[in-house]
TrEMBL record:
Keywords: Signal. Residues 217-341 form the DUF1570 domain. Residues 1-21 form the signal peptide. The keyword Signal applies. This is DUF1570 domain-containing protein. Gene3D superfamilies: Neutral Protease Domain 2.
Amino acid sequence: MRLWNSLSLLFALFAAHCLCADEISFERGGQRIDLKGEVIATHEAGIILHTPDGKMWPIQNTEIIERTKTTAPFQLQTKEQLIETVLAEMPPGSQVIETSHYVVAYNTNRAYAQWVAGMLERLHRGFTSYWTQRGFDLQEPQQPLVALVFDNQDSFAQYGQAELGSAAKSVIGFYSMHTNYVVMFDLTGGAGGNSRRSLGIRDIQRLMSRPDFQWSLATIVHEATHQLAFNAGLQKRYADVPLWFSEGLAIYFETPDVSSSRGWRGIGQVSAPRLQKFQQAARESSQPFLPDLLINDDSLRKAATALDRYSQAWAVTYFLQKRKAEEYDAYLKELSEIQPLHDPTATERVRLFQKHFGVDLTELENEVRQMMLGLRP
Ligand SMILES: [Zn+2]
């Protein structure tokens, strides 16, 4: 009897603490989608479901048809299962390269994919040692990080269409919060049976060191930095971190470093194109930008204002990292704790910024301007 009691108590404890999977059926675009996963955030308007393949699905309550709790615990796919999932999403005949932290799936020249894998690992090492030296206790990603490398811009755009729409045709690469993948294409022109098929890793390295490749390369490093920030615990996917902050952080790491075999020297260098843009805008207008930058995420998304805004996001990040590192780290720590679907208001955003960097935004902005006008690209 006593044994039975303790057993049922154990069972009750298990049931109360079981990280059991949820089964959710919902309708989107006229289609029924059935998923099993773990609800990681809830809000009056909807939920976010984390599925075993590492994807995250924001689902509106109004889309949900059925929701049940299973008795089986939620489990993420193993590396082997994840590779199967990824290959099923790539064009037929695609292959993978596995490194310590990444799975690189590709349908292009293997040497190119190897070059990408090597670059990602070096960035990973640089990123990890940078934040560890700053005293951050980074998390190990829950699953291997996935990168997709398509053979050319067309097949890349075809894949990207579902998430980016027509914008997929005009970008070089992207990180998806939904899939958690970083997606790119072969910048050397792809395999496709052309003469570049025979390029070896050294030829690719030489090609990528050319000045005309630097901007494209910076974009890939930028996107891969987003992936690292979201998987190392600096940011949570779908949490409302100010956009200027995540973009500024990615730009801070984006300066390419193709030459060195050890370390990653691109961290925290002056970004020449961003600096030039900032200086040009600052000379043309003395209108304050900081108060709006802190709260207006759309201004970074709209084509008309994006370039100026990215340069300001970089400038503020550069200034804070170089001059107010401790305050920046404390601010970053607090931002990393924002939970998905619990969006701070604009006033709360400004207050949090002021809590760490002082209430006088005009004074701070003047210091940023002064520093930027004194820098050389
Ligand atoms: Zn970005």
